[in-house]
Amino acid sequence: MIRDYDTLARSPAHDCALDCLEAGIEAAQPRTVVAETVQRTGEQLRIDDAVYDLEAYERVVVLGGGKAAAQVARELEAILGDALTGGVVVTDDPEACDRVTVREGDHPVPSQRGVEGAEAVLEQARAADESTLVLAVITGGGSALLPAPAEAVGLEALQSVTDALLSSGATIDEINAVRKHCSRLKGGRLAAAAAPATVATLVFSDVVGDDLSVIASGPTVPDETTFADALAVLDRYDIDAPAVRDYLTAGVDGDVSETPSPGDPAFDRVSTHILADAWTALEAARSTARERGYETMVLSSRLRGEAREAGLAHLAVAEEVVATGNPVEPPAVVLSGGELTVTVRGDGEGGPNQEFALAGAIDLPPGAVLAAVDTDGRDGASDAAGAIVDSETVTDTAAARDALDDNDAGGYLAGRDARIVTGRTGTNVNDLRVLVVD
Asked: Within 10 A of 415 (CB to CB), how many other CB atoms are there?
């Protein structure tokens, strides 16, 4: 999975870190997860602990989107066979399916083909009735891949505000509060379009804490945010987006209907199942480290904030392990998950995981290796998944700090053969970070 593995595995500690990353990504693959959580026995479809009687429905369709949507749809086809009558998913990582139409969109900024794909999803949702079972596949990246902008907003304005928010340092919760209120599909509106169908939502979570209303902007779950909340995000980060501001203001004034909130009858026949999340990857990585004889500890599955600050925090943990054996005795592997952000001030290349790694590498003690990837294989807008560093990665501290100031961690690490490249992995369950101290 990791390209140039042999070059990157410079020591047993490097080898362990890379194996932990691969194990985490593999554990979150739809082919693994769906087989473990979705089973068909005769005319009974079991999803986690819920059972659906397929004979009770005239149609069973798969609708949704996200980076892993096509892979999930393919696995559902294999399980359901001729019980599956069709569907549409939108993704930027397409896979051939027999019964489900796979449409391509773009991430992280929405595109016209994403709009067309989202319209196809909405069209099939509106055609559903009480004799339809909708398997709603919702995975990370769905916010950009299923845009469906409100007519008064339009695609160009949505692209502009998305780009500005992604560069501002805003959290995913804040970004998605805006996207939900600019969309005809997000914030529970897909469930409203499909009502009164039975909707079983299958989720691959890329959101810290698995907030269902934030994952892909919550197309099938109630939304507790408001137009006022979304407008406050634009004010907080001083986002210049006239068309979006006007639309959100119209919503605040009551001229546009709010997103469906808890208690709305649109959700009377909706259930939600989280099939994979950050812990899926963390547990697999921890198991791999233990098999190699390392003591392990998970710092948190919910780390968020500025990437370079998190890098310094992991550096501090490495120093403490080396100096005192706390919080875990070496040889040790310390793991974390979550979603880091970068406030873009320069014009370099890279992403949160590369910025995290470079910040930690500047003073990393000998014997420690720090690695981080986005489990979808794309670190921000970079073609790398992340990076792996040790005490010898940074040979010029001033140059490394300059790279961080210019948001050019990717450029610096590429020159040190420290970037991790996987290509698209077929899944998305947040970032995965591994600290190895031999």
From this structure: 11
Distance between CA 59 and CA 207 in Å, rounded? Answer: 31
- Crossing angle of helices 242-252 and 154-168, in 10° steps, is 100
Residue 327, preceding bond cis, omega within 30 degrees? yes
0.70 surpassed by pTM: yes
Candidates 350, 408, 353; CA nearest to 375 is: 353
**Which residue ranges of the chain lie beneath pLDDT 50?**
none
What pLDDT, on a 0 to 100 scale, did the predictor assign at position 13? 98
Name the maximum alpha-carbon separation found in the chain.
67
pLDDT of residue 247: 98
Six-digit token pair at 385?
Answer: 């998944």
Neighbour-count burial of 240, counting CB atoms closer than 10 A to its CB (0-12 exposed, 13-18 middle, 19+ buried): exposed
Query: How high is the pLDDT of residue 169?
Result: 87
**SS3 category, 78:** helix
C-alpha dist (Å) from residue 302 to 25, 164, 429, 430: 17, 24, 12, 9
For domain 5-26+279-437, give the fold. glycerate kinase, domain 1 (3.40.1480)
**Residue 347 and residue 406 in contact, taking contact as beta carbons nearer than 8 Å:** yes
- Tell me how far apart the alpha carbons of residues 348 and 403 are, in angstroms, rounded to a whole number: 8
Options 3.40.50.10180, 2.60.40.1180, 3.30.70.3490, 3.30.1330.30; CATH of 29-276: 3.40.50.10180
Contact, 142 vs 172, CB < 8 A? no
